[in-house]
Q: What sequence folds into this?
């Protein structure tokens, strides 16, 4: 997993952008594609973390079905994971299959 901090340059994302509600404390947004093997493992990791940490939601977005958002957010590979704070600001971004410990650590920037 390649992680990067993001600054305030990206806009705030809401439920309308994501197709699902934001978490009370943070949201894990996963961009996936149909034939992406690492996306399946990423889905399990993010779902586990969201179930484990109160107030955290996991939203998965089919990259092919959300091309405008993919372009706007410059998603170039799947899986791409965004960590949003409670207001929908991107505070962390990672490409590739994450480890559970890395996701939990990234949530520290959001909560």
A:
């Amino acid at each position: 997993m390649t992680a990067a901090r993001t600054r305030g340059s990206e806009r705030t994302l809401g439920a309308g952008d994501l197709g699902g509600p934001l978490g009370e404390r943070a949201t894990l947004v996963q961009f996936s594609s149909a034939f992406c093997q690492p996306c399946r493992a990423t889905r399990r990791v993010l779902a586990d973390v969201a179930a484990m940490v109160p107030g955290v939601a996991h939203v998965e977005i089919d990259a092919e079905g959300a091309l405008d958002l993919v372009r706007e957010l410059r998603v170039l590979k799947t899986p791409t994971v965004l960590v949003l704070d409670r207001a929908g600001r991107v505070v962390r971004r990672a490409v590739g299959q994450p480890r559970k410990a890395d996701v939990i650590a990234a949530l520290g920037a959001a909560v």
